[in-house]
Write a structure and sequence with these properties.
Elements (H helix, E strand, L loop, with lengths): L13 H12 L8 H17 L6 H18 L12 H27 L23 H30 L5 H11 L5 E3 H5 L5 H16 L3 E3 L9 E4 L14 H15 L1
Antiparallel strand pairs: 1-3, 2-3
Helix pairs in contact: 1-4, 2-3, 6-8
Length: 265
């Protein structure tokens, strides 16, 4: 084995010094040539003391342990003693080597992240209020009621709007003509009388809009003795009808209506 030369330097501890000696001698940690390593270790301690370097007590303790291991290796061992005197030292060196390698990986990470500012974590208060076991029966009942209500709305919507889709919508103007014809022979009529015979909801709405339009242009007037259950309407003196010809075309009524609307505006 060739002689080893090294600079005196500060090691982090006796294990660091031993690991350095093992690496420089290129030997295995699991099979340490204890005699060579012990001699080189003692040379370092002696030289450090000769240079007035303060040698920590832990280095001295390790030196005594190495001397003990060396003596055990030199002396013949009893047959029943199978344990290797170097076993504890080997385990300590392996653990130290792993820690040193991990530290080498963490050092650049620390240098990279050390300049970063990290937001402090928010303290979340823990709610320690006791909550008893919850009965979900009422919740299930509420869900069933909501579903039933939605189904009822959907059924009602289908009932209300299906006829509007399946039947043609009659224009309001046609309804106005029909109302005017009805009022030709009557001076007073109830709202129910004018719209009750409508076959569908769209027809009813169209007739009601026609009544409102005629009231707006003053061809129909709301009776003074109005009854909420049976509102009365009466023909205005401005009602312009061709009573001499009972077969007047609807377009003539619409023309009359439009002309009246334009005059009103």
């Amino acid at each position: 084995m060739e002689s080893v030369t090294y600079r005196l330097e500060q090691f982090e501890g006796p294990l660091d010094l031993l690991l350095t000696l093992i690496q420089k001698n290129k030997v295995s940690i699991t099979d340490i040539p204890i005699s060579i390593i012990c001699d080189q270790y003692m040379e370092y301690i002696t030289e450090a003391q000769s240079l007035d370097m303060e040698v920590a007590s832990e280095f001295i303790v390790m030196a005594s342990e190495l001397m003990l291991i060396k003596s055990k290796m030199l002396l013949p061992r009893p047959e029943e003693e199978e344990a290797d005197p170097r076993a504890e030292l080997t385990d300590a060196l392996l653990r130290y080597q792993q820690a040193k390698e991990a530290a080498g990986k963490l050092t650049p990470l620390y240098a990279y992240h050390s300049a970063r500012m990290v937001k402090d974590t928010d303290e979340i208060s823990v709610d320690k209020t006791f909550v008893a076991d919850q009965d979900v029966t009422a919740l299930c009942s509420a869900v069933r009621r909501i579903i039933a209500y939605n189904n009822a709305l959907e059924k009602a919507a289908n009932t209300a709007f299906k006829p509007m889709i399946s039947k043609p919508i009659i224009p309001v103007e046609i309804k106005i003509v029909s109302i005017l014809r009805h009022m030709e022979t009557k001076t007073v009529a109830s709202l129910e009388e004018l719209i009750i015979d409508e076959a569908s909801l769209p027809d009813l709405i169209a007739s009601f809009l026609g009544v409102l339009e005629l009231i707006k242009i003053r061809k129909l007037l709301i009776a003074d003795d109005i009854d909420e259950e049976n509102a009365l309407l009466k023909a205005s003196t401005r009602l312009i009808l061709n009573t001499d010809d009972s077969t007047v075309e609807e377009s003539e009524y619409i023309t009359d209506l439009n002309a009246t609307n334009e005059d009103g505006e």
